[in-house]
């Protein structure tokens, strides 16, 4: 059997780490299975997700993202990593362009430069969707806000929104300890209420311009950062009247600036290369 080498770039955005490959180099490979192999931390490269990049037909760049369990998803932090790679590797020749992602969504991107070096990246996520059928969630009504959910012998109050992918947010006075977080989060992720599962964010609003979060991502588990999740927290907190339209969302991996506009949510933060290499298949 011929050994195959697949080049990759390890990248991260606020601690959300990814294995990025060029789709052309992975022709003939099942990307879902590849994600499960490469994202496995003891036996693979280790990551929160696999990004496959190629030139698009509807946009200069097309990105596919797969969770460590092989499911395909939308990813806010992954978009910034893909944007930086695309800009620095010649997919585009201008700092403003679009990336096509899951479901054909076109995401505008702006690279912010300082002395010719990438300093930060902004992406405009699609307008948030609040109706349960668009989240999706199997409940009646027009929105899910301050909704009681019985789970693991206790009741938590949740709010839900789709900011490119499904998010459930639990607002409180403090972030959960390990026992509460690890007991409740995975049960909410797989609750029958969410036919496509949900990511779970525990959030504390600490001022008009800041919120702090602890993150459980569907298909991954606890992560240090989540871009679309930060957008979900900012949108729901603003909708409740607790914050301004632009806030900083702080997670274990760092801070993201989130601005809520009528035509979408602008997410600004860093994306960094960690290392490059080849994996043997």
Care to give the gist of this entry?
This protein has four helices and 18 strands. The chain has 281 residues and is α+β, with helices and mostly antiparallel strands.
How would you characterize the overall build of this protein?
By secondary structure, this protein is α+β, with helices and mostly antiparallel strands. The chain has four helices and 18 strands. It has two domains: 5-111 and 272-280, Diaminopimelate Epimerase, Chain A, domain 1 (Roll), CATH 3.10.310; 132-261, Diaminopimelate Epimerase, Chain A, domain 1, CATH 3.10.310.10. It has an 18-stranded mixed β-sheet that branches. The protein is globular, with a radius of gyration of 18 Å.
- Secondary structure: number of strands: 18
In CATH, the topology of the largest domain is named Diaminopimelate Epimerase, Chain A, domain 1
CATH class of the largest domain: Alpha Beta
How far from one another are the termini?
A: 11 Å
Q: What's the CATH superfamily of the largest domain, by name?
A: Diaminopimelate Epimerase, Chain A, domain 1
What is the overall pLDDT average?
96
What Rg, in angstroms, do the CA atoms define? Answer: 18 Å
Low-confidence stretches: none
The secondary-structure class comes to alpha+beta
CATH architecture of the largest domain: Roll
Morphology: globular
Seen as an oligomer or otherwise, the chain set is: single chain
Largest sheet: 18 strands, mixed
Helicity range: 10-25%
What share of the residues does DSSP label as strand, in percent? 35-45%
N to C succession of SSEs:
EEHEEEHEEEEEEHEEEHEEEE
């Amino acid at each position: 059997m011929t050994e195959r080498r697949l080049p990759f770039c390890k990248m991260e955005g606020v601690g959300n780490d990814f294995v990025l490959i060029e789709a052309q180099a992975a022709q003939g490979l099942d990307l879902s299975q590849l994600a499960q192999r490469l994202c496995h931390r003891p036996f693979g490269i280790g990551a929160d997700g696999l990004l496959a990049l190629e030139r698009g037909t509807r946009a200069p760049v097309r990105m596919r993202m797969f969770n460590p369990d092989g499911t395909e998803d939308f990813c806010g932090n992954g978009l910034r990593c893909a944007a930086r790679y695309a800009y620095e590797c010649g997919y585009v020749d201008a700092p403003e362009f679009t990336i096509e992602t899951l479901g054909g969504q076109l995401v505008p991107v702006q690279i912010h430069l300082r002395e010719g070096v990438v300093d930060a990246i902004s992406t405009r996520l699609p307008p948030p969707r609040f109706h349960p059928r668009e989240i999706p969630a199997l409940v009646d009504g027009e929105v899910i806000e301050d909704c009681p959910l019985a789970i693991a012998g206790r009741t938590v109050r949740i709010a839900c929104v789709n900011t490119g992918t499904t998010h459930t947010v639990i607002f409180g006075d403090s972030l959960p300890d390990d026992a509460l977080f690890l007991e409740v989060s995975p049960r909410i992720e797989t609750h029958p209420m969410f036919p496509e599962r949900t990511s779970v964010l525990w959030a504390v609003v600490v001022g008009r311009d800041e919120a702090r979060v602890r993150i459980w991502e569907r298909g991954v588990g606890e992560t240090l950062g989540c871009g679309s999740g930060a957008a979900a927290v900012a949108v729901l907190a603003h909708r409740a009247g607790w914050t301004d339209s632009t806030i900083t969302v702080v997670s274990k991996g760092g801070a993201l600036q989130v601005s809520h506009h009528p035509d979408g949510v602008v997410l600004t933060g860093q994306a960094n290369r960690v290392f490059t290499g080849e994996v043997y298949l």
